[in-house]
C-alpha cells in the first residue's frame, strides 16, 4: 500500500474568469463560447405500402437505433466527445486526453476547477486531469475538487512525461539565465537545470503556457520546460531532451464524467472512495481492517484536512481543550463495486465512518505509460 503525504484540432477553450497580467504573468486561455450541437431528429417517413398508406421508417429494422450495451458505456470510442483538460494546447494533459479518447475534441481550460465546471455545465463530455506524479507526488488541488464537485471517476490513464528544454530560435543554452514552467515540472528537472547553469526559476500555470509565453514575448534569456509537441506548436527550438532528473517520470490522470459507468468483474477494476472517521485510538486501524480481512488490496491512501471542519476540539484531561485537525482519507482499492466482497467491505465501513462517498469504480490502466 502506498501512502502519500503530500494534435488534432481542439475545440474552443473554456475560461473560468478574466485576469490581466504583466510581462511574465501566466498565459490566459482566450474566452470563446462552445456551442452544443443540436440533436438530429430520429423520426422520418418511409415510402407507401401496397395500400398506398405511408409506412414510418421506424418499421424498417435497418433504420432502428442499436440499443446501447454495457461495452458502449465502458469503452466509448471518443468520436465527437469533447474532453476538457487544464492548460494550453500542447500540455501533457492534452496528450493524456488523446490517449484516453483518441478521437476526441480537446477543450483547453484555464484552471482545474474550470474543467470540472465545463463537464458539469455540459460544455464538455469528459475531463482528464492529473491526480499524481511518480516524482512530484499528489496534485492536492484535484483531490479537494473531487469532493467539491459531483463528478464521477470513470477511468484512469498513465502518461510518461518527457520534458524538453525549449527556447526561441538562435538562443543557446549558455545564454540562458532562467527556466519557466509549471512548478512540478521545474521540480522534476531541478538537478539537470542546475547542471546546465540555469539557476533562476519562474513558475506559471502549465508547461505549454510557458512555451507560448516565451514565443509570444520573444524572450532570449529564458527557456521553457515543456513537451516536444509544445515546441512544434509554438515554433521553439529543442535545446535538450529528456531533462527530467528521473527517467521513470509518470503521471496518472483521472477521467471524469457526469454519470458513473457500470462496474464489471471481467477485468481489473479500481474503486476510489473518500471517508472521515471519529477521533480516537484504533479508528484508522478499524477502517483498514475491513479491507484486510476481505483480502482487498489498497493501492493508495491520501489524507487531506477537512476544510468544512478544519479543527476538532477534544478534552484530553488537560487544563485547556486541545485542538486537532480533522481529516478526510482518500483511498484506492483494487476491487470493483460489482464484487460482493467490496460491497460488504464498504457496508461494514459505513457502520462507523462519519462520512463515506464512492468517487468512482473504473478499469485499471494496464497499458504502457
Automatic annotation (TrEMBL):
<dbReference type="GO" id="GO:0004664">
    <property type="term" value="F:prephenate dehydratase activity"/>
</dbReference>
<dbReference type="InterPro" id="IPR045865">
    <property type="entry name" value="ACT-like_dom_sf"/>
</dbReference>
<feature type="domain" description="Prephenate dehydratase">
    <location>
        <begin position="82"/>
        <end position="258"/>
    </location>
</feature>
<dbReference type="InterPro" id="IPR001086">
    <property type="entry name" value="Preph_deHydtase"/>
</dbReference>
<keyword id="KW-0028">Amino-acid biosynthesis</keyword>
<dbReference type="InterPro" id="IPR002912">
    <property type="entry name" value="ACT_dom"/>
</dbReference>
<protein>
    <recommendedName>
        <fullName>Arogenate dehydratase</fullName>
        <ecNumber>4.2.1.91</ecNumber>
    </recommendedName>
</protein>
<keyword id="KW-0456">Lyase</keyword>
<dbReference type="GO" id="GO:0009094">
    <property type="term" value="P:L-phenylalanine biosynthetic process"/>
</dbReference>
<keyword id="KW-0934">Plastid</keyword>
<dbReference type="Pfam" id="PF00800">
    <property type="entry name" value="PDT"/>
</dbReference>
<keyword id="KW-0584">Phenylalanine biosynthesis</keyword>
<keyword id="KW-0150">Chloroplast</keyword>
<feature type="region of interest" description="Disordered">
    <location>
        <begin position="1"/>
        <end position="71"/>
    </location>
</feature>
<keyword id="KW-0809">Transit peptide</keyword>
<dbReference type="GO" id="GO:0047769">
    <property type="term" value="F:arogenate dehydratase activity"/>
</dbReference>
<dbReference type="GO" id="GO:0009570">
    <property type="term" value="C:chloroplast stroma"/>
</dbReference>
<keyword id="KW-0057">Aromatic amino acid biosynthesis</keyword>
<dbReference type="InterPro" id="IPR018528">
    <property type="entry name" value="Preph_deHydtase_CS"/>
</dbReference>
<comment type="function">
    <text>Converts the prephenate produced from the shikimate-chorismate pathway into phenylalanine.</text>
</comment>
<comment type="pathway">
    <text>Amino-acid biosynthesis; L-phenylalanine biosynthesis; L-phenylalanine from L-arogenate: step 1/1.</text>
</comment>
<feature type="domain" description="ACT">
    <location>
        <begin position="272"/>
        <end position="363"/>
    </location>
</feature>
<feature type="compositionally biased region" description="Low complexity">
    <location>
        <begin position="1"/>
        <end position="11"/>
    </location>
</feature>
Amino acid at each position: 500500500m502506498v501512502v502519500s503525504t503530500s494534435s488534432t484540432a481542439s475545440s474552443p477553450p473554456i475560461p473560468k474568469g478574466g485576469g490581466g497580467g504583466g510581462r511574465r504573468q501566466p498565459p490566459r486561455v482566450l474566452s470563446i463560447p462552445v456551442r452544443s450541437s443540436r440533436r438530429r431528429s430520429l423520426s422520418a417517413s418511409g415510402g407507401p405500402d401496397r395500400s398506398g398508406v405511408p409506412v414510418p421508417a421506424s418499421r424498417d429494422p435497418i433504420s432502428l437505433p442499436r440499443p446501447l450495451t454495457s461495452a458502449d458505456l465502458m469503452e466509448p470510442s471518443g468520436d465527437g466527445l469533447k474532453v476538457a483538460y487544464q492548460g494550453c494546447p500542447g500540455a501533457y494533459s492534452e496528450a493524456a486526453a488523446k490517449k484516453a479518447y483518441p478521437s476526441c475534441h480537446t477543450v483547453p481550460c484555464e484552471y482545474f476547477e474550470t474543467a470540472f465546471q465545463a463537464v458539469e455545465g455540459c460544455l464538455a463530455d469528459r475531463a482528464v486531469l492529473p491526480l499524481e506524479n511518480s516524482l512530484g507526488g499528489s496534485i492536492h488541488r484535484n483531490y479537494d475538487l473531487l469532493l467539491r464537485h459531483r463528478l464521477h471517476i470513470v477511468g484512469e490513464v498513465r502518461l510518461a512525461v518527457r520534458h524538453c528544454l525549449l527556447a526561441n530560435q538562435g538562443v543557446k543554452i549558455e545564454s540562458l539565465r532562467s527556466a519557466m514552467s509549471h512548478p512540478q515540472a521545474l521540480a522534476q528537472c531541478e538537478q539537470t537545470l542546475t547542471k546546465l547553469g540555469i539557476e533562476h526559476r519562474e513558475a506559471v500555470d502549465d508547461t505549454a503556457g510557458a512555451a507560448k509565453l516565451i514565443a509570444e514575448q520573444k524572450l532570449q534569456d529564458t527557456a521553457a520546460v515543456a513537451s516536444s509537441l509544445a515546441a512544434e506548436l509554438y515554433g521553439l527550438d529543442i535545446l535538450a531532451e529528456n531533462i527530467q532528473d528521473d527517467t521513470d517520470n509518470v503521471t496518472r490522470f483521472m477521467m471524469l464524467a457526469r454519470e458513473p459507468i457500470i462496474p464489471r468483474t471481467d477485468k481489473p477494476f479500481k474503486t476510489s472512495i473518500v471517508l472521515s472517521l471519529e477521533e480516537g485510538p484504533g479508528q484508522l486501524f478499524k477502517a483498514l481492517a475491513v479491507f484486510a480481512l476481505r483480502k482487498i488490496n489498497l493501492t493508495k491512501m491520501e489524507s487531506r484536512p477537512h476544510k468544512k471542519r478544519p479543527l476538532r476540539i477534544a478534552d484530553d484531561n488537560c487544563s485547556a481543550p486541545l485542538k486537532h485537525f480533522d481529516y478526510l482519507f482518500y483511498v484506492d482499492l483494487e476491487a470493483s463495486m460489482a464484487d460482493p466482497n467490496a460491497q460488504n467491505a464498504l457496508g461494514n465501513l459505513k457502520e462507523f465512518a462519519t462520512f463515506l462517498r464512492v468517487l468512482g469504480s473504473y478499469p485499471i490502466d494496464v497499458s504502457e505509460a
